[in-house]
Description:
By secondary structure, this protein is an alpha/beta fold. The chain is built from 8 helices and 14 strands. The strands form 2 sheets. An 8-stranded mixed sheet has the order 3-2-4-5-1-10-11-14, with helices on both faces. It has a 6-stranded mixed sheet with strand order 7-6-8-9-12-13, with helices on both faces. It starts with a strand and ends with a helix.
Amino acid sequence: xxRIVALGGGGMVEGENLPIDERIVALTGxxxxxxxxxxxxxxxxxxxxxxxxxxxxxRLGCHTDTLTTLxxxxxxxxxAHKFAWADLIYVGGGNSLxxxxxxxxxxxxxxxxxxxxRGCVLAGLSAGGLCWFRYGYSAxxxxxxxxxxxxxxVRALGYFNAVFCAHAVIEERLEPFREFMRGxxxxxxxxxxxxAIEIIDDRxxxxxxxxxxxxxxxxxxxxxLFNEVLTGGNPRPLAELLRR
Length: 244
């Protein structure tokens, strides 16, 4: 069973996404699941790891661990052991371009494939949300030039044939993302903070921690751009979501 939850954004400190995080934990089917935090995108920021431990460990009752790949370099065997240990792997936000390049160099992309195949719950926000899709609409260039940077398309892990855009409204990405989608051959999914898309095998639905959190599907057909606001409700066929 494939179980993936991709969040558009929101913090852990104040429990902003608490209903979504509770759902992520429940998907493991375990009372005290083993939850691994992967903070590559933030440069292995220790505060992000501490937030995860406080939220998923102390608040949500998981056994937690952290994988660091930049501050220190564990062996391939040590990384594989952490992945095999986990019932749930949560990917934090940050520089998605650097994250995905490093994962491929270290073989972590293949470990995610194996974790998905064995039914491990995969989740994350922002960079950790876009990584499950074919592409991500990324602000990674701002880490080099925060005052003037282009949004770029980054090649992600490719589980779903879509482009994922995080922070769609709160960071005013929605309109430029719609224009960006004119040149794409797959659908676009734009999610704001406080909402997520849950994909279990071939079914999907939108989760929200705030009722007004925006989620939208965008696609191009015969030179014309279309969009559809995504609501909650019962799970629906994934093929319908990805159809252009």
